[in-house]
Specification:
- The complex is a heterodimer of chains A (about 110) and B (about 120).
- Chain A is mainly α.
- Chain A has four helices and no strands.
- The radius of gyration of chain A is 16 Å and the shape is elongated.
- Chain A starts with a helix and ends with a helix.
- Chain B starts with 8 loop residues before the first helix and ends with a helix.
- The chains are: A mainly alpha (about 110), B mainly alpha (about 120).
- The interface between A and B is large, with 37 and 40 residues.
Chain lengths: ~110, ~120
């Protein structure tokens, strides 16, 4: 399983690499002249492109962050076994649910 | 005082990558919550965004951008180390990554504060 988790984390990182660059660039542009909900939503509402972009981002980060936190928990607290795996899945599920909700909120 | 095996540039790179990842993971639920406010309408989201005018919040935002950039460039370094042939100059990439991250964070800060 460790190999699958290792590869899933690297793969999600590779998927996110261009998305992160785009996100930072967009934030640098968007934050000029102040930031309003209207500006954000005018850009994202009804856009399939932004839905795909941030939907992919949310899915990838849910996997990546959950595995990363699992590694930290395991190394810091010497946590092993089914309870750790359950906690990691719960973190992934929470991030996926909240991320998906956020994407729907700005796109729908 | 850090023990000798930790007083090493590449250990700092690891520590920064781990710390930035942890902080970003803790930040994410808040970020998703704020974006989710749009479900209640632009006014609800604007109510929260008004808080971001506070200097401390601005500083926090710059920090988050820095953390994301540091984690990103550190991750690229890791992918290079794990999947590409080793080259001597790869160690310098760690320092370069930190520098680039700082530059990106400063650019964000300028955008937010100095270009109204």
């Amino acid at each position: 399983m460790s190999l699958w988790l290792f590869m899933a984390q690297r793969l999600s990182a590779v998927v996110m690499a261009p998305l992160v660059i785009g996100h930072i660039a967009l934030m640098i542009i968007a934050v000029q002249n102040g930031l309003t909900a209207g500006e954000i939503l005018a850009r994202t509402r009804g856009s399939l492109l932004w839905a795909a972009y941030y939907g992919t981002f949310a899915a990838a980060v849910s996997i990546h962050a959950a595995i990363g936190l699992r590694n930290i928990a395991s190394e810091t607290f010497r946590w092993r076994g089914p309870s750790l795996e359950l906690a990691a899945v719960a973190v992934a599920g929470l991030l996926l649910a909240m991320g998906g909700r956020a994407v729907i909120a700005v796109v729908a | 005082m850090l023990r000798p095996h930790r007083n090493h540039p590449l250990w700092y790179a690891f520590a920064l990558h781990r710390a930035s990842g942890l902080l970003l993971a803790l930040f994410l639920p808040l970020h998703f919550y704020v974006l989710g406010l749009a479900l209640k309408g632009a006014e609800a989201m604007d109510g929260f965004l008004a808080l971001t005018a506070h200097p401390l919040v601005k500083a926090g935002e710059v920090m988050v951008v820095f953390l994301l950039a540091v984690h990103f460039f550190g991750g690229l370094r890791l992918l290079a180390v794990e999947f590409l042939p080793w080259r001597d100059w790869q160690k310098s990439v760690a320092a370069g990554a930190a520098g680039l991250s700082l530059a990106l964070a400063c650019l964000f800060l300028l955008s937010a504060v100095a270009w109204p």
